[in-house]
Recover the amino acids of this structure.
């Protein structure tokens, strides 16, 4: 069994035509279930004139209206605490979680039944197994185990695989690093940012992570897991292979994972989801190789059916054949590229935090950084990048980084300043490295451009 | 399906029937254990594309 490269070989290597047939069958069941069990969905489907038996091909999916986070939030506000989106009575649930608040200040709340919770772990099994985690592994989970769903599913997937799972909640970074080394962990799960933070802590403690037992890192929670420079830095500092995954609380688990071939992208779990990529402005589908917004339909979580959810994640889809692993599941090249609302407009130039990170991480001497936006003289947007450089020739690095950032952004002038070592915030979960202090005019959220 | 998969599918069917028809006959340890097992086996049925449906009426 351990030699088997796929978690579900039948589905992961299924010819694309058969896979489409499988998705269509599951889509019909999902629409039928949502229509019969959730009046809120039933009305939306009825308003769109859609019934399950009318779905004759996957193209018919487009007849179903998009579901936005705002609509979901309104449903929750109208009928708190969960909204009129539950397909089964609340007392059947065994789990409560909520979003981390990446977008918007009010979290979405979700419930899972026993079956759905098992499914959440099942999705993580695709990712863990596909990246090479096996029953003999010892898996350390560097995660706070609270109501944010984070690595909860990974924890249970590790148990399901038969790994020895070390829950790393309620620990300092020093305690975590020591336990990873002392317990001989072979796999570590964390955000990319926190993987770097633990490596930094290990250096300060005089521990050699690259000489430890760790052979695999499972990354999630931030786009950085697929930024080549960040991933390279993590792999160098840990002496281990790093694999990217991405999930969201709205679906309860991961939808995409990087396989052990490390093709520079993440496979879509297409037997459990339909992933569409659309232009975020026109809503029209975009083709392979084009940047667009992920829209996801999930077959797994029956308690809260999800049809055509606008994720706001930016991705570039590529055919399965671009990877040599043998899976027929398509990929997102470069994983999640960022979010639709991530982009900052600075004096007419588009700046994506991910692009800035990709450049900053080319400099291994930089421990931590922050992007600071502010208004100069009350009228002019400015952008500066603060960096901690504990070792190396700081002045030379600052000069090179300034030029690299400008070259990558149509000559836009970046201020690059050295920050005192240890002064910038560290993050255990999703990093928040953009501080936007530009002048706000008019109503809330209205910014001078 | 191969023989092993068929055996698992049969076990799923037996568990589902046990909970649907004999739930009240089971002590808490047996009833809860069977419920949990059904949730786990549902994943196998789903992975084999055997349309296991939803199980919320059984508390799963």
């Amino acid at each position: 069994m351990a030699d088997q490269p796929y978690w579900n070989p039948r589905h992961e290597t299924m010819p694309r035509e058969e896979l489409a047939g499988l998705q269509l069958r599951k889509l019909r069941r999902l629409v039928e279930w949502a229509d019969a069990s959730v009046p809120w969905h039933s009305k939306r489907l009825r308003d769109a004139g859609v019934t399950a038996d009318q779905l004759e091909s996957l193209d018919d999916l487009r007849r179903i209206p998009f579901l936005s986070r705002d609509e979901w939030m309104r449903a929750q506000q109208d009928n708190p605490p969960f909204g009129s989106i539950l397909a089964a009575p609340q007392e059947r649930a065994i789990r409560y979680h909520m979003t981390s608040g990446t977008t918007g200040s009010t979290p979405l709340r979700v419930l899972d039944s026993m079956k759905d919770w098992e499914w959440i772990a099942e999705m993580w099994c695709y990712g863990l197994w596909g990246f090479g985690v096996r029953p003999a592994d010892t898996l350390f989970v560097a995660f706070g185990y609270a109501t944010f769903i984070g690595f909860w599913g990974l924890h249970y997937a590790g148990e399901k695989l038969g790994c020895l799972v070390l829950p790393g909640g309620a620990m300092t970074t020093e305690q975590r690093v020591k336990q990873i080394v002392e317990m001989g962990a072979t796999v570590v799960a964390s955000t990319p940012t926190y993987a770097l933070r633990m490596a930094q802590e290990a250096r300060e403690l005089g521990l050699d992570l690259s000489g430890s037992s760790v052979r695999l890192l499972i990354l999630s929670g931030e786009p950085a897991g697929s930024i080549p420079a960040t991933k390279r830095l993590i792999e160098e500092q840990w002496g281990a292979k790093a694999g990217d995954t991405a999930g969201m609380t709205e679906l309860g688990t991961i939808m995409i994972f990087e396989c052990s071939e490390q093709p520079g992208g993440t496979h879509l779990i297409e037997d459990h989801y339909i992933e569409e990529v659309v232009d975020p402005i026109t809503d029209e589908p975009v083709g392979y190789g084009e940047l667009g917004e992920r829209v996801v339909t999930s077959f797994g979580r029956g308690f809260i059916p999800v049809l055509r959810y606008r994720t706001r994640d930016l991705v570039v889809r590529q055919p399965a054949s671009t990877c040599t692993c043998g899976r027929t599941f398509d990929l997102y090249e470069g994983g999640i590229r960022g979010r639709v609302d991530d982009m900052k407009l600075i004096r007419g130039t588009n700046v994506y935090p991910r692009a800035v990170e990709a450049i900053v991480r080319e400099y291994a001497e930089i421990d931590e950084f922050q992007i600071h936006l502010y208004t100069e003289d009350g009228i002019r947007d400015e952008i500066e990048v603060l960096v901690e450089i504990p070792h190396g020739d700081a002045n030379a690095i600052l000069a090179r980084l300034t030029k690299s950032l400008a070259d990558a952004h149509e000559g836009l002038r970046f201020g690059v300043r050295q920050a005192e070592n240890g002064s910038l915030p560290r993050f255990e979960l999703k990093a928040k490295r953009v501080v936007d202090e530009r002048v706000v005019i008019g109503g809330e959220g209205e910014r001078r451009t | 399906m191969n023989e092993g998969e068929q055996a698992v599918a049969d076990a799923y069917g037996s568990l589902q029937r046990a909970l649907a028809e004999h739930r009240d006959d089971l002590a808490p340890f047996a009833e809860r254990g069977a419920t949990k097992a059904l949730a786990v086996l549902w994943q196998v049925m789903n992975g084999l594309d055997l349309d296991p449906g939803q199980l919320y009426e059984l508390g799963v």
Notes: Residues 1-338 of chain A form a domain with the Rossmann fold fold (CATH 3.40.50.12780). The longest helix of chain A spans residues 16-37. The interface with chain B takes residues 8, 10-11, 22, 25, 29, 33, 37, 87-89, 92, 113-115, 117-119, 122, 271, 302-303 of chain A (CB under 8 Å).
